[in-house]
Amino acid sequence: MILELDCGNSFIKWRVLNTAAGGLFAEGVVDSDQALVDSLHTFDGLSLRSCRLVSVRTSEETAALTRILERTFGVLVVCAKPASEMSGVRNGYDDYERLGLDRWLAMLGGFHLAAGACLILDFGTAVTADFIDAEGEHLGGFICPGMPLMRNQLRTHTRNIRYGDLAAERALTSHAPGRSTVEAVERGCSLMLRGFVLTQMELARSYWGEGFTVFITGGDAGLVADVVPDARVVPDLVFVGLAMACPLS
Ligand SMILES: Nc1ncnc2c1ncn2[C@@H]1O[C@H](COP(=O)(O)OP(=O)(O)OP(=O)(O)O)[C@@H](O)[C@H]1O
Ligand SMILES: CC(C)(CO)[C@@H](O)C(=O)NCCC(=O)O
Ligand SMILES: [K+]
């Protein structure tokens, strides 16, 4: 079995692949290293042979998690590393090591699946967009605050915006102008994300006409997926790229 991890800023997405049987053994989302270990310990029959991970955390945090996994499960942990070129994709950053590794892996996965020009949109703690042309050239991208950051900034910097998670979820069943604080904020932020998607689509069309594939991924993909009905919603796009960047023998 292979343990795969995508360590984002707020959550660790994990899954265990059953190499022999082929397919998924288990998967989950946790908010700490300890919660990851606890989750994995709940599975009888877990027998990890190896582990590959991508992290956008500090190297200290990533090293700490690596140590815990190696000690607890006795596996070797392989971490995705930055590259200027891989699997036909050329990193477009002036300083390729600065490009977030989650973005890089989603780009490798997207270009592989599209086999052509693609726009990759990731809705996590941060929202990112990346443009890759048909030759695999990364034209660059955009980073902006995601839903959790937008909502928390409003909560933190105002005195009268306060509401619970349940009310937030209920508010997002419509995009009509809000008639309560929770509706006004949740729908307003959601419309910001949807507007962002439309702008990225315009830019992609200006480059490639209709000849490109749109990928949507990240925990909040569901908030925007219907804006682009033709988009491919691929929740595990980072994992597709992770397998390409870190093949295990
Ligand atoms: N099962 C889930 N577990 C955790 N978050 C979820 C889940 N489903 C949707 N979300 C939402 O997804 C968002 C987090 O996205 P995601 O997990 O892709 O990124 P992240 O790890 O927080 O950050 P990063 O952008 O660094 O990857 C939050 O707004 C969260 O509410
Ligand atoms: C933008 C995030 C936070 C998205 O997870 C991550 O890819 C990251 O930390 N990137 C480093 C900065 C950059 O990509 O330019
Ligand atoms: K991410």
TrEMBL record:
Pathway participation: Cofactor biosynthesis; coenzyme A biosynthesis; CoA from (R)-pantothenate: step 1/5
Broad enzyme group: transferase
Binding of K(+), residues: D122
CDD domains documented for this protein: ASKHA_NBD_PanK-III
The protein's Enzyme Commission number: 2.7.1.33
Catalytic residues as annotated in Swiss-Prot or TrEMBL: D102 (proton acceptor)
InterPro entries: ATPase_NBD, Type_III_PanK
Cofactor annotation comment: A monovalent cation. Ammonium or potassium.
UniProt binding sites for substrate: Y93, G100, L101, D102, R103, T181
Names of the cofactor(s): NH4(+); K(+)
Residues binding ATP: D6, C7, G8, N9, S10, F11, I12, K13, T125
Subcellular compartments: Cytoplasm
MF-aspect GO terms: pantothenate kinase activity
UniProt entry keywords in alphabetical sequence: ATP-binding, Coenzyme A biosynthesis, Cytoplasm, Kinase, Metal-binding, Nucleotide-binding, Potassium, Transferase
Catalytic activity: (R)-pantothenate + ATP = (R)-4'-phosphopantothenate + ADP + H(+)
HAMAP family from the UniProt entry: Pantothen_kinase_3
Quaternary state and interactors: Homodimer.
Biological role: Catalyzes the phosphorylation of pantothenate (Pan), the first step in CoA biosynthesis.
Family listed: Belongs to the type III pantothenate kinase family.
Full protein name: Type III pantothenate kinase
Phylogenetic classification of the source organism: Bacteria, Pseudomonadati, Pseudomonadota, Gammaproteobacteria, Pseudomonadales
Gene that this sequence comes from: coaX
